[in-house]
Automatic annotation (TrEMBL):
Key words of the record: ATP-binding, Nucleotide-binding, Transport
SMART domains, per the entry: AAA
One GO term (biological process): L-alanine transport
PANTHER family: AMINO ACID ABC TRANSPORTER ATP-BINDING PROTEIN (PTHR45772:SF7), CONSERVED COMPONENT OF ABC TRANSPORTER FOR NATURAL AMINO ACIDS-RELATED (PTHR45772)
Lineage: Bacteria, Bacillati, Actinomycetota, Actinomycetes, Propionibacteriales
CDD domains in alphabetical order: ABC_Mj1267_LivG_branched (cd03219)
Entry GO MF terms: ATP binding; ATP hydrolysis activity; L-isoleucine transmembrane transporter activity; L-phenylalanine transmembrane transporter activity; L-valine transmembrane transporter activity
Pfam families per the UniProt record, alphabetical: ABC_tran, BCA_ABC_TP_C
Name by which UniProt lists this protein: ABC transporter ATP-binding protein
InterPro entries: AAA+_ATPase, ABC_AA/LPS_Transport, ABC_transporter-like_ATP-bd, ABC_transporter-like_CS, BCA_ABC_TP_C, P-loop_NTPase
Cellular component terms (Gene Ontology): plasma membrane
């Protein structure tokens, strides 16, 4: 991967679901070590964008990871190029330990990989899992089960699960959902630390306080289109953003977003 290339670059990415244009000509970049926010009212097309980048939604336009075109590749091949995501409802397996939750996340898709895993009884190297746990600061709870952890720690296990196995670009879809203000702030600090170690992060969250605090840059989607991009300060004051949120100033509360269209 060339240092000059953004980790993620989309050009004119569009997704249509029947008569609905869920993404229209979305052009966005994420650089190494950068946390980029993707915000917008309910139904604006944020999850669709992540689906399109990871190969779970059919799209037109270009998707480049580290300068290489990946649009047209199936999800597992995009994963191999270093792209990983969390899901909106990213539940953990309560009966497995934290380390085991990470182990089951490491897939080796494809028939050859499956046969190799069956024949060798292969499990991901402990070092791979250890390194992901270290990155998110959860080494001490590797042998605990999710119900024994705080909600904030459980959310971080979800992030670690996406990090395991060589991830350079993390796409986080509402990773802080359900956290209270204090937990969310702590989550934001951890996220900054993780990104500082190298990976680029695309963050979708309805917690405006988290997003405005933690992101270096933001893109605002409305009806599938980018209507504004800039630093948190620029976005907070952009008139078109305020208008998209039904006239509410973009304040640091989830309420402003919940007031958006459904
Ligand atoms: N699989 C699908 N089939 C048909 N329409 C879909 C599908 N997924 C999303 N849509 C539509 O595409 C649009 C964008 O939805 P999307 O879930 O991407 O928005 P979002 O910004 O992530 O919303 P939220 O903040 O509520 O999660 C919506 O109109 C939605 O109804």
């Amino acid at each position: 991967m060339s240092d000059q290339q953004p980790l993620l670059e989309t050009r004119d990415l569009s997704v249509r679901y029947g008569g609905v244009t869920a993404n229209q000509d979305v052009s966005l970049t994420v650089e190494p070590g950068e946390i980029v926010g993707l915000i917008g009212p309910n139904g604006a097309g944020k999850t669709t964008f992540v689906d399109a980048v990871t190969g779970f939604a059919r799209s037109t336009g270009e998707v480049r990871v580290g300068g290489k075109r990946v649009d047209g590749l199936p999800p597992h091949r995009r994963r191999r190029s270093g792209v990983a995501r969390t899901w909106q409802a990213g539940e953990l397996f309560d009966e497995l330990t934290v380390a085991q939750n990470l182990a089951v996340a490491v897939q080796r898709p494809g028939l050859r990989g499956l046969i190799r895993d069956v024949l060798t009884g292969s499990v991901p190297p402990a070092a791979t899992i250890g390194s992901a746990l270290e990155t998110v600061g959860l080494v001490d709870v590797a042998d605990r089960r999710p119900p024994e952890l705080s909600l904030g720690q459980q959310k971080m296990v979800g992030v670690a699960r996406a990090l395991v196995g060589g991830t350079s670009l993390l796409l986080l879809d509402e990773p802080a959902a359900g956290l209270d203000t204090h937990e969310s702030q702590h989550f934001g600090v951890e996220l900054r630390r993780i990104a500082a170690a190298g990976p680029g992060v695309l963050l979708i969250d309805h917690d405006m306080s988290l997003v405005l605090d933690v992101c270096h840059r933001l893109y605002v989607l409305d009806f599938g289109k980018v209507i504004a991009t800039g630093t948190p300060e620029e976005i907070r004051n952009a008139p078109q953003v305020v208008a998209a949120y039904l006239g509410s100033p973009l304040v640091d509360t989830a309420a402003a977003v919940d007031g958006g269209r459904s």
